[in-house]
Amino acid sequence: MDIIQLLTHGAEAFIGVFNAGGKTFVGFVTGILPTLIVLLTAVYTLIGLIGEQRVHKLAQAAARNAFTRYTVLPFLAMFFLTNPMAYTFGMFVEERHKPAFYDSAVSLCHPITGLFPHANPGELFVWLGVGTAITKLVEEGHSPFSLAKLAIFYLIVGMFINLLKGIVTERITVMLAKREGVKL
């Protein structure tokens, strides 16, 4: 192979990467992006109808005990505010609970995406990869799970893990604060 052929092949491979990226982008523009825009519009409309103050009161109520603080509150935060604004719901928890709330909220980023892709579009690419594989297995008759069923189970397991992580992180925070002489 001479130098001209080598350069030509290299240039074609280089531009091929961008052509493939362009095709993927067009697929997103005609596929998932309109869905995300409509979901975000619906959520903001829901907040407008419910009222921001009512959403805040619901968040304050969810922050009162460990069970709802590490399950319901992160869910509400991710659903209504999406990632990364969801972490601002930490303002509703006491200072000593903030590390555990953050741990729970950040851990919910992926499990919520299967049912509510607007919550964390950055994780959507991972979910779509899993979804493609599951859909193919279902079509071939190798999987008893539908994609929706998987998304529901994934969210339920994610919420349970968040509860456990929240409680453990809360205890670790108290232990470290005592060791370091920090008053919580």
How does this model look, in words?
The termini are far apart. The model has no long low-confidence stretch (mean pLDDT 85). The protein has helices at 3-30, 32-50, 52-62, 66-69, 72-81, 98-107, 121-139, 147-180. It is 73% helix and 0% strand. The chain is elongated. α5 packs across α6 (98-107). The protein contains eight helices and no strands. The longest helix is centred in the last third of the chain and has 34 residues, at 147-180. With 184 residues, it is an all-alpha fold.
Characteristics:
0% strand; 184 residues
Strand/helix succession: HHHHHHHH
What is the mean predicted local confidence, pLDDT? Answer: 85
Q: How many whole angstroms does the radius of gyration measure? A: 22 Å
- Helical residues, percent: over 70%
Form type: elongated
Structural class by sheet pairing and helices: mainly alpha
**What is the straight-line distance between the termini?**
71 Å
Q: Could you tell me the strand content as a percent range?
A: under 5%
- The total beta strand count reads 0
What low-confidence regions span 5 or more consecutive residues with pLDDT below 50?
none
**Biggest sheet statistics:** none
Q: Report the total helices.
A: 8
